[in-house]
Fold this sequence. Notes:
Elements: E1 7-15, H1 22-42, E2 48-55, H2 59-67, H3 72-89, E3 96-99, H4 103-118, E4 122-132, E5 137-139, H5 141-146, E6 159-168, H6 174-185, E7 193-195, H7 197-208, E8 214-215, E9 217-219, E10 230-231, E11 234-239, H8 241-246, H9 248-251, H10 259-264, E12 277-281, H11 285-299, E13 306-310, E14 313-315, E15 318-319, H12 330-340, H13 342-352, E16 360-362, H14 364-394, H15 423-434, H16 449-465, H17 469-490, H18 492-496, H19 503-527, H20 532-542, H21 552-555
Parallel strand pairs: 1-2, 1-12, 2-3, 7-13, 12-13, 14-16
Antiparallel strand pairs: 4-5, 4-6, 6-8, 9-11, 10-11, 14-15
Helix pairs in contact: 2-3, 12-13, 13-14, 14-17, 14-19, 15-19, 16-17, 16-19, 17-19, 19-20
This protein binds one RNA strand through β1, α1, α7, β12 and α14.
Amino acid sequence: MTDQTPFYVTTPIYYVNDRPHIGHCYTTLVADVAARFERLRRGSGRDVFFLTGTDEHAEKVVETAQKRGLSPMEWATQNAGEFRKAFDFMGFSFDDFVRTTEDRHKARASDYIERLMKSGDIELGDYEGWWDASQEEYLTETVAKDANFVSPVSGKPLERRKEQNYFFRLDKYEAQLFDAIARGERGEPGGVRILPEARRNEVLGRIRGGLQRVPVSRRIREGDADWGIRMPGDPAHRVYVWIEALCNYLTVVDNERAPSTAAAEGGSRRRFWPASVHLMAKDILWFHAVIWPAMLMALGEEPPRTVYAHAYWVREGRKMSKSLGNFIEIETIEAYAKRYSLDAVRWYLLTQGPLGATDADFSHAKFVEVYNADLANGIGNCASRVGNMIEKYFGGKVPEPRDYQQGFYQRLLPDGSFDTSTVLGQALAARQVAGTPVPTGQSVKAFNFPDVVKHHVAEALAALDALDLVRAVQMGIQLVRFVDDFISHTAPFTLAKQINEDESKKSALQTILWACAETVRIASVMVSPVMPSKARHIWDAWNCFPPEGAEFRHLCEFGGEYKLNPGQAISKGEALFMRADPAEAAPVAG
RNA sequence: GCCGAGGUAGCUCAGCUGGUUUAGAGCGCUGGAUUCAUAACCCGGAGGUCGGCGGUUCGAGUCCGCCCCUCGGCACCA
């Protein structure tokens, strides 16, 4: 993927009757980190589009609204607001938030359906199933059987009932879908890449089992509220919500034929299609990996390039469910953010979350472990010790480095002493003088900063392309570990005690600390997509705020265009992450 | 039931097409070193029959068979 390709990432649009919880936040966080990373890589947000929103046309929305004495629209608006609030709190940088009740969505979704009817991909047919009169709904064959063909609610017998419905001819696209998924696997254009791999196999297996046409509408009944989208040309039928909902990914960027809207939306968004990534939890993979791509094929649109279905969060080892009432809701997340900072929560959710095929556990003990290991003892401590030494030894001014392009090589002279013409040799010699030499038997090391940084940055970008966001951001923490290792090897604090005797020792110290600070700066850029505000803290304290439009790979070049400039002021600043006590109780909402 | 994934150090997991070693990493735990730093960082250790049994092979976590266990998809839920 070149840096110029438009990047379009979506989350599902969330069922507006729900309350925002960790699941919604997690999926959207993954999208947010991907979007922020891609913007950074391109140096601007112009070619990145990140969409989220709410799915509002469910019949349950009408019911709930009634119970609350509100119109469906009032209720939906209120709860869509809750999602926006939660997502704003999480710091999500979505470019648009779509509600399926908006005209732009309804009009275009309706248009797609109409086109599919004209092309014969949606046709009228008979639907026959088990009708539960008390609930006014059809039950699937398996559910009906499990319930012994009586209503699970009222206990009255189910009736066999037939009606006319519209169907999408999914069965016509079996071969094309196979082909697209195979191409996606090979990374070819026009293909749909399904991730993680285990999910792709599930999908392929299910397609092999045969595809059938799927119902996409139901007949409107007497007394039904006017909620949802009607079948074009047949107002007696309403489009099923899920099929209409899927269309949101396209309706939002398909604004070209509505010039007034497009103007208000900053121009045509057509270039963002096909979507780069549809993100979702595993439960709705089938819709996104099969039905939606088939619909797009029928519409003559390209299918999404990647469909990524992550697994679920469980809580302290137990599945989250409505019956257990143990969902981690936004309030709990807020409580964690209040205690440990929002960026720490983002870090934990992203790096420990169920991005793969298996579920992930949210446990307080694990949270504290990760918080301390990666953040407090990791990047926080490292930034602090480096900033402190620069403040202490160089009056808070970035020191002038010498010769870092050569890397930091250790060289032993024939007589067994260190070659003090290298920075590393100088440092090791100082340790010997001080009586704290590197333990014998410890491997001889070289610290080639330019190469190491280059390698980590390349790895991060490769991981980003594979949508391995965890690895992408962890490369930043790995760099910090490299700096920590370097500091204990060179012991700049030991060197610092000898600089009065020897000017060359001072210059070695300058080089060492500059390299440390420069690398921490780069690490901060690398983790900024997950921890935007903590990164900003470092940039503020160190005066190295990336200029608008700066590209990732330039920002991350060791000693490059955006390097820490000698002479510039640096302050130690406040600790980024205070160490947490594992014995402390978990934060509670309220 | 059908289809699929997996069982490797206390925990979370790497180990692709079988022979680089006496099977690795991170976290936790423990001993040491050190003081610039947020009792942080660095070094070392901890010795896990690589789920069980049998087989193929000169040689198997790595291939085959059987068995035990766990977990996913097939059905709404991020």
